Amino acid sequence: MKKGLKIAIGADHAGFDYKQAILGMFDGYITFHDFGTYSTESADYPDFAHPVALAVENGDVDFGILLCGSANGVAMTANKHQNIRAAICWKQELAIPARTHNNANVLCLPARHMSIEEAKKTIETFLSEEFEGGRHERRVDKISC
User: Fold this and answer.
1) DSSP code, position 13
2) Marked catalytic residue, from 68, 81, 89, 108
3) Residue pLDDT, tens place only, 62-82
4) pTM of the model
């Protein structure tokens, strides 16, 4: 994983505890821009997914990380943005093709369906892999409307 990455991160109430743990896991390697939520009180995932997606879309950060219970809501929301390729990954092995084949730029983690240890490994893998381009680039170029 490259040192000095800038990551936008956001979560709803279901992902709050994981987000807080993740913020402390990569000290010195990653600068996080935390878009909330800031408690376990019920919150609406689009309120956090949109700002994270915008930060990635605008080039303010290198990647985004979103968390909610299943990761479906945050992924659906983030993928409404042009040039966002949000991938749901609940284990490390899924992060590899998300980056190498799909050039995903937002990682969506289902906090209710993975351990915090698996979340950390998945993040490390996602941030370490590079897009392969080639035949995959043709496909990725067809994603945006």
Assistant:
1) G
2) 68
3) 999 999 999 999 999 999 999
4) 0.96
